Amino acid sequence: xxxxxxxxxxxxxxxxxxxxxxxxxxxxxxxxxxxxxxxxxxxxxxxxxxxxxxxxxxxxxxxxxxxxxxxxxxxxxxxxxxxxxxxxxxxxxxxxxxxxxxxxxxxxxxxxxxxxxxxxxxxxxxxxxxxxxxxxxxxxxxxxxxxxxxxxxxxxxxxxxxxxxxxxxxxxxxxxxxxxxxxxxxxxxxxxxxxxxxxxxxxxxxxxxxxxxxxxxxxxxxxxxxxxxxxxxxxxxxxxxxxxxxxxxxxxxxxxxxxxxxxxxxxxxxxxxxxxxxxxxxxxxxxxxxxxxxxxxxxxxxxxxxxxxxxxxxxxxxxxxxxxxxxxxxxxxxxxxxxxxxxxxxxxxxxxxxxxxxxxxxxxxxxxxxxxxxxxxxxxxxxxxxxxxxxxxxxxxxxxxxxxxxxxxxxxxxxxxxxxxxxxxxxxxxxxxxxxxxxxxxxxxxxxxxxx
Length: 452
Hints:
This protein is α/β, with parallel strands linked by helices. It has two domains: 6-296, Mur-like, catalytic domain (UDP-N-acetylmuramoyl-L-alanine:D-glutamate ligase, 3-Layer(aba) Sandwich); 305-443, Mur ligase, C-terminal domain (Protein-Tyrosine Phosphatase, Chain A). Strands 4-3-2-5-1-6-7-8 form an eight-stranded mixed beta sheet, with helices on both faces. Strands 12-13-17-14-15-16 form a six-stranded mixed beta sheet, sandwiched between helices. The longest helix has 18 residues, at 95-112. It contains 16 helices and 17 strands.
């Protein structure tokens, strides 16, 4: 089979989305067997949760890298380029490696299991690609974020050193269930026999479900608020930047400033530190200095990311009600007397609870610009206006909220750019896709397709 170009490779990967999202691990297990089980050549850390799992994974990977280990990080989706999903030592996989490994996987499937090649999903193949890349580069540890849920997620073929569930809230109800216990049951599927579980879940009913699942599998359980605790102090660096210093108490105690904005990062950091302590207990070499430096040097794109300050432009990938509430809390905390008009560009997916994403955000917004990123799943802005805005204005008392529609993220940005003043604030949010397109436009580059 001739080698594909990078564009052809990316097109091939995204064309696999025609197979949809199919629960089950049989296809992934078959593919990994064809590849010689690359996931067995490195140790792994497996992280699930509704929100916070990407930040927690990045924290653990940063600390392990600063400890001198070769570390792979697998997260999804990306913001601008597909390569962001697969990193070693913070550096994204190269285009050449994506092409070569996709060719290899495709060729092996078509020769050894043609039926599998016709059924494999986008996320299954990209997960296998990540594991194969990590194996070839001899990583010692791979920090792997669950794509969705946990029990039937393609990443759940791992046999990790430790697992974590950051928190549980409503999202992907079409696949995971419509109640928190149902969603918790899916995420609890990553718990393995005898493998430590670090839980950041605070809600009693879902925490109890995880407790029972861990006990049934004799998995050592470390829970936020019980076996480990965290307290935090806000650090205001300017009227619009509020970071956090945390004090963590577990097997050991740590006081750490976080190089990330938002009080919610304290819980994510606590889960990351719980994982790190679980790794240290199994003999992984990580010093206190490594931990401090790993957190100090960490940067995460698209999570309360400030792109400029006059006017203030803030990007955040909040894509569900829980994420929107966290974003709104931060915006309210950083409002100050000199703040001008509060702008919000929002592009969301049609399968999300749009009303509950909008609800916390409109109270800290003066003008809402609804738009649509370039993905088929995106909600049509005009539909949101007709179905949601009037009712929310009434329920939340936001009668002065101005609303307009622009057909693309770039058009929305141009509209605001022509009207915004230096003292104003612009927030761009609603999905990874919206933020990715805005970030690419701001940086003067073009995003690769972000259709999955």
